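Is zinc ion placement plausible here? Inputs below.
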Amino acid sequence: MGVANLGGHFGTVTTKPVQEYTPGLMESYDATVYIGSTYYGDEIPDAIPEDFYLDTLLSERPVTWVGENIWNMANSVSLQEFAYRYGWDPTSSFYDVDGSVGQITKVNYKGQELTRKIPAGQDPGVLHPHITPGGDNATVTELAQAVDTAGGAEKNSPWAIRSGNLTYVGEIPFTYVSESDRVIAFQDLLFDALAPDTAEQHRAMVRLEDITPLSDTTSLRAIADYLKSKNIAYGINVIPVYSDPKGVQNNGVPRTVRLSQRPALVNTLKYMLSNGAVLMDHGYTHQYGNVDNPYNGLTADDFEFFRAHVDATDTVVYDGPAAEDSAEWAQERVTAALAEFARVSLPTPKLWTTPHYAASATDYKVFAQNFAARMERPLYFSGTLSGTPTDSSRYLGQFFPYPVTDVYGTKVLPENLGSYEPEAHNNNPPRLAADLINNAKANLAVRDGFASFYYHPYQPVEPLKETVEGILALGYTFVSPESLI
Ligand SMILES: [Zn+2]
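Reply from A.M.:
I modeled the complex. Tokens:
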């Protein structure tokens, strides 16, 4: 799913278990990516058809091989043939060197130092390809380097290599990712296979988050005037109904406030829209019923489309879709949100961001029916590719450096830097302007990528200025989220 979503930036993606490969199939596609997530060896018989090995060897079309089983290909097509075409020997390439996978903490790619932070005991390592010297006609290009920092002295080995039609990546790069992660190298390498003529450009986006009917108009205007002074277009993510069913911000008295009851705020939003902002819908109430989900029932604090609780270690745990989750239920909430915007003569938003980035597969499809695109980090549930009922307890959370059409068939715009958060919460460390700027720098490795972040307008304007100006100094150009739909 992770690769298919990224591939959805470039065109239509077909996914299949490798067992279903039929001879010649790769000639019908621009490129093939094989994900070696299951090790075939010892007592597990090789499930890869011999035709897949042979076609990879004989095809001129690009094949990207990620992770396990490349040695099985070498054995299948003969090691001599493999080494002749590709210039390396997978059968003598290992994850372990001197009995240990080491501590690969960085991946260097196109001048950027990308991070690789795997918790202790969880690291399966990176394959160290054994490049065979001389004699053959194959030239092996090192695309990215893994840096092992165990014991202080840095040791480099190839992280990704290319020879002939074969790009090999020594690990599946979707685990334990962060905003400066080595997955960025993989995101960029796909251009070589799928859009090699892409020109280098670096765009940035910013959106203001969690604007409610009770948001302070003075701070909104200050931010609007700053962004206007820099000629920056931006998104404004509005929650049209503020709900506080327990009165946690109102002396214990429950309170609901609608946009239509706050004309001064509506005027401020219209002022922003006439000065470079684009309206986005950030849910209906951004909370769930009158229960703690997970905090206090308050708009912008709680989840709306997914259930969650905080566990004994102060970590937010996802519990799954709401009990009444269905396409009808999600549509009712979207319809109610759109009606609030219409009631105060705001334009119909074309963009959506799911509250707290969590909803069911059913909900995501409903959002796609109502909006041109979502700007967010979605959840992708097990079962989506096979078409079996999705398992809401097994999912991949993913963020993107460029717009994609994802495995739900819906368009997602990038948000890959996160937000300015001066204080730690729920075991997430603070994220300061410098962190966002460093992450934007790492993303310069994506040849046609974005630096996209969001900002809470209740924060002072100064860190926003610092972030925006840091990103501009890296060479990014801010564009409106609307320019991508
Ligand atoms: Zn929010």
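Short version: The two ends are 23 Å apart (CA to CA).
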